[in-house]
């Protein structure tokens, strides 16, 4: 057996060290920098961080925290609470708490009193404000620290981060401009499935200029030789080094473990790690198992309470583990040197051994004064659950959930509430133990899901809660859960209307105005998503009256917000500007940033729907930045970003729009919003010719559309993108099926949808006609479809200024149109600044000019269209432009093209290609913008050069020689 040692040298990471140091220099002098270090387990992420932060110049403040894996559930904000406590220890309690400020100091200590006892509807309303306040205070703290000295924050094991920690990390990466901060995150890529939120986070952050992404690669053979020499302290046998390199795959931890192995053929990494541990004496080995059950870090105060050892025996065992490099000494305790060691030791324990050790931890934590701290409560609940003690697991999870709500860790709050529900049937008298009935727990779980959890889980809890809440005996609680259920359904597929109607029925006018106001707010929120409520205006008026009499600023804000949506539906956006200003004023008076952002979103969306892009874009951009800054990116960001992206798309900033949509798709956003984002992104992909990407995006987007007719309003983008995709694939009949599906949900459209669908629908009919010019049945269908589409526009009456370009284009598309008609439409699009539509109309105008033998006019229009298409990067449109120019003979230079096969000129080859499709001379003339007489002359010359006597012979020869 070879003797295994370890080395603190960092081998083969010179480039990565230099990149982090350069990032630190840039962070000190220019702007804050985020470094993401990713790689497989054992690749050396932590060692790289340890090596680099110890050598940074300028005496930086370095705070390190790690995310925890305990029973697969993260401890909320674990990394950041560790940082804050280390900061207090470094500065001293009083100076440290002064730097933190009162808000963060109280947050770190945990809430007091009955802060978590408010009813669910108030918990839900408070949640966004609490999260926003926390993130602002943390950002302010970091800003204060960086004013004094450079600061390095290291968050290890982001792959285990909970939702709250992940949001805070992203918020710091996005919101702090600096300079002064270097933010480092380490991620184990082997832990990330395709849909893992951290994998998506990686993809989004990597695109930012201030982010340095380092993917640690395995060591090469020379580096393995160098590491083995450093580990063993002597030259290495080349054969042994080659075998170690092959078996380890260049993983430094595996190399280190193999350095002492004698059997290199069959040993696994887990076996090697356990083999080393087996050579320890009994007491250190048992102590290592105890530490492994405790998680990533065990404090000095806790370890004696859970270990069988004490005094000198405990100290001796700890020293052995440190010297044997199984554990490392932290500031206030110990942690295993690597997660793989902890995993190997933990999984090697028998189930009964694991349960016994988890119980020891739970009992010890109960005795510690620190048990009142939120992270300790969460840890306690996890240990009791792993110990298989349902009574204590239930009570600890309940207390943890209450604390976690006040810490804005809503995802973790929901998980602990679900632990309570899971253990409920196993614990007699559960209600008496926690002072709450099962339905109370369910209500809180639904509210937590609305605040920051998955809609599906919240809906399941809502169904169970409603089954227990009688409409007669408990109308207020039932109405509350119905409103929360409606919000979740609305995010999923634009549903929730029936739930709102029932809640309104429980509290009709005059019965408990306070509850009625809350229900009306929910009615406006849910109704606005699909514009489906005929009573929408009445709700706004009633809410304004009730809120005005009660002095309720929040209710007044929502009444004005609802009127913005009404104005958009009626295509009378100008009338709602006063409502926008009043709504913002009342939302600020109520101190509700989420409502303020919603009003910004609705107003910018209304302007966008009226094609007032220049007015809409800055409002949406500022509001989106505010959502980022205040920590409301998850709740309000998706729809604000969608408005920004649509505006960017319309004005031709396609790259910016695509980047923003890709960023959105990395977040866990509700299914309905996700479908809308995918639809617009697919539309851009089709325009760029990225058809495979568009198909993938639309496949996911379509899963929402099949569940709810009401979701149609949010899926217009997706269906229109699907329509464009089918046209690009050369299947106009499939594109017409998209038109049919869109028409089935026309009742949910706003005017902007009508104009866009009608315009694209008419283009589909033109493509159908071109594909089957002699098919009388299809011709009849086309005429009927055109009549249906044009009737929709006629019912709208006089368009707004923003919609006028659509109407002019629709009239030209419906035909017959002159060059002047197309030019009028082009001028309208030019004035609106919507460049993609402008380019398409210019192409249509060029076709019309060619029909009238105006070749110079066609060239001018095509050149303008080509410039726009090149700037937008829309390859398919460029292809259409080039093909049109080629068919019309506009693309040739001054030098005549040399004859091709059989002596045919380029124009004759083009005529032959069309002739081979079976078209008559008149049809060829229409397609190539020639006169029938000219086509006849070309056909005669073609017959002569090919030495054929009929169209059939010419067609056969063209196919044989590849000319067709």
Automatic annotation (TrEMBL):
GO terms for molecular function: adenylate cyclase activity; ATP binding; DNA binding. GO terms for biological process: regulation of DNA-templated transcription. The keyword Nucleotide-binding applies. Transmembrane segments: none annotated. InterPro entries: AAA_16, P-loop_NTPase, Sig_transdc_resp-reg_C-effctor, TPR-like_helical_dom_sf, Tscrpt_reg_LuxR_C, WH-like_DNA-bd_sf. GO terms for cellular component: cytoplasm. Keywords: ATP-binding, Nucleotide-binding. This is Regulatory LuxR family protein.
